[in-house]
Design brief:
four-stranded antiparallel beta sheet, alpha+beta, about 130 residues, Alpha-Beta Plaits, globular, 4 helices, 2 domains, 4 strands
Amino acid sequence: MNIPQEVLESFDTTWQDEGLESRSRAVREAIHEYIERHTELEGLEGPAVAALAFDYEHTLVIGELHTVQHEFEDVIGTTQHMHHGEWCLETVFCQGSAARIRELVYRLRDFDAVGRVNVMFLQPELSTE
């Protein structure tokens, strides 16, 4: 695995502050949390309402992000944008097909200049089939 030194140091501080016995244990827990988040995202079907929050390095990706947002205007209702130096925080509010929202999440996560993409389904409507 290739992990930047500052991320690894922060990770070590976090698991040690939580009183875990080892980095291996903390990595196992992090992997389990990742799998749970992914499984929840993959399992949603039908219409959904969601908020996607992500951070990104503005100058490296803004043009491409605008293109993606236009490609997904069928599910994006509104966006909120905040600058913080070279980094930005953006929240995208979506409504529509869970599959289409999931596709948007994966497109955003595919950018190297995007740090994180967090998803919160505000009102998942489960299929009654």
